[in-house]
Design goal:
Blueprint (H helix, E strand, L loop, with lengths): L36 E2 L2 E2 L8 H13 L5 E4 L5 E4 L1 H7 L1 H9 L7 E4 L5 H13 L4 H17 L3 H12 L8 H10 L3 H13 L1 H4 L3 H9 L1 H46 L24 H13 L9 H16 L11 H9 L3 H17 L12 H4 L1
Parallel strand pairs: 3-5
Antiparallel strand pairs: 1-2, 3-4
Helix pairs in contact: 1-4, 2-3, 4-5, 5-6, 7-8, 10-11, 11-15, 13-14
Length: 381
Amino acid sequence: MMDGISEESPLVVKKAPPVPPPLPCTVTTNYHEKGLVIAGTAVKGCSCVNTATKDLWEALFDGGYRSDVCIRTDNGGIIYAHASILGMASPVMKSMLKQKKVHGRWRAISIRGVPQEAVRIFIRFLYSSCFEEEEMQEFVMHLLVLSHAFVIPHLKRMCERKLEKGMVTIENVVDIFQLALLCDAARLGLICHRLILRNFRAVSATEGWEVMKKSHPILEKLLLESLMESDNMQKERKRKFEERKMYLQLYEAMEALVHICRDGCRTIGPHDKCLKEDKEPCKFGACKGLELLVRHFAGCKMRVPGGCIHCKRMWQLLELHSRLCCDSDSCRVPLCRNFKERIKKQNKKDEIKWRILVRKILRAKHIAGSPFFPWSIAACA
């Protein structure tokens, strides 16, 4: 039956794979205009728009050929532009131009509150999406305001990135923070807020802070509240760290206790073990201190109400071990089974306290749900 299948049949697996289709053609023509920045970075031969086209838009803006919009700025400045370009670039400008009456062929709008040069750079960007790096460095805050007010998200993102990358300092952080709040620049505002909290003493001594206190007292109050909240959170983190450190020490003490009672450690251990003082140093850091506590517990003669504080600590460690031990029948730690029986008769209040302690120790070691001691896995299974 196989003899009837020809070599050209689709059932026959050919040795050579089919030739893949050719890759899509890449753009072979790259253009570059020295001194201009596009999309926040200097163009290095990877622009999709050739130099002649960008020069054409630049010339249209600079020459104002057949312009029909007059933009008035501070100090009597005038910038000429084209309504069709402004309207397509900004929905806000489109609405403004619709509301303005035409006088001859001219419509007039006003952009005030920022320097005329900043307005010129902004309008130029609407034409060619280009700007000079030095101009961006000087007028970045004004351009951020203009891009937010006239809804130019591309320019707004570039201004935010420019400010985020090294332009926020102790002296101007308050001003930039207020600007970020007004312009809905969340990431920039967060960066400024963190810088204020980290350097509050230096920031509160700046001129910007004094001006903010007078003009925006509510903002000052919110910053002070956030500073207090940050301090409280830092204290809480420190408290939790110290608490976890204590639970880890208890964990290590439990390990060292089982180690001493089961294997023995150099000079102390069970009677049936051969102890050697020249053994290598013990890997359990808590072993030395626990050894001293065990020796004291074995030889203490104090029998008074309240007892010895060191013996109390040892009793607590033994009870804690019994609550963590998986198999009291085979456990070598003294009184483990006795404490297990005592737990059954303990009042509910004490039982809850011990359970909380055990849970926190397990959580601190990130082994909740597993046997506490690694050597108890077999017994618990």
